[in-house]
Amino acid sequence: MSSNSIEKLRTILKRKATIFHTGGHRPLDSLEQSWIGRVAVALPAEEQPVDVQGNVMAPIMQLYLPAMPFVPQAICDVKLLTVFLSPDVLDHEDMEGYMCIREYTSVENLVEKDFSPVFMHIKAFPLFPELIENDYPVWDGEDIPEEYGDALNNMDEEEPDYFEDIVEEIHAVHKIGGYPSFIQPGIDFGEGYEFMFQIASDAKAGLNIVDGGSFYFAKHQNEGIWRGYFDFY
What is the distance between the alpha carbons of residues 136 and 10, in angstroms, rounded to a whole number? Predict the structure, then answer.
């Protein structure tokens, strides 16, 4: 297999992403600081959200997007994004009604709020962004789209091993943009949905999603509706 063929496929596949490092530096005393395990602001009238069964949701993540080196085009106008999850979120494959994502295109009217951690006693840590130029999809067998599968099979020489020959690194961490780092194969958010960000298990923050899993969030390109999914080992 020629190096030119490999590099051509890498160029087609790779996407930019912002990954996050948990802690390690002193947090900024500013709204521009992103967090895992903490949501500190909301509009004056907004309270801590509840799920469809009336259970109070826990604050999971707060992201200040203008400080990110890369964000997907679909949320480029969003200044601040916050995430809350229900205590029953892992009991439902469909996360609708068990998650709350709030988007703010302006931060001018936001006020400080003291949202209780409720059930997910995640230790709050600041998140520090890093630009990744070459994020790759996690493809396993039937996950590979037909057009790319044909490209792999039609290489000049022997059939390449996707993870050995094509992928440089899988970034299974807190991430915005790029590709979801799925653990289980065969996942599809549905027509019109585009992956936006993921929340990964985080030992430093004390967040373990069942068994080293992740939450993934996609947004409908036209309707603006969010859809969530989780998987684990």
Answer: 8
Residue type, 118: V
Contacting residues for 61 by C-beta, under 8 A, at least 6 apart: 34, 35, 36, 37, 39, 81, 82, 83, 127, 174, 199
Residue 70 carries which DSSP code? -
User: CA-based diameter of the chain, in Å?
Assistant: 63
Q: What are the tens digits of pLDDT across the range 111-134?
A: 999 898 876 678 999 999 999 999
Nearby residues of 110 by Cβ (< 8 Å), 6 or more positions away? 31, 41, 42, 43, 80, 104
Q: What is the pLDDT of residues 209-229, one digit of tens each?
A: 999 999 999 999 999 999 999
Distance (Å, whole) CA 111 – CA 228: 27
Distance of alpha carbon 115 from alpha carbon 59, whole angstroms: 7
| Rounded alpha-carbon distances, angstroms, from residue 90 to 206, 218, 225 | 17, 17, 20
Q: How far apart are CA 141 and CA 149, in angstroms?
A: 9
Cβ distance 195 to 186 under 8 Å? no
The predicted-structure confidence for 50-62, as pLDDT tens digits, reads as follows 999 999 999 999 9
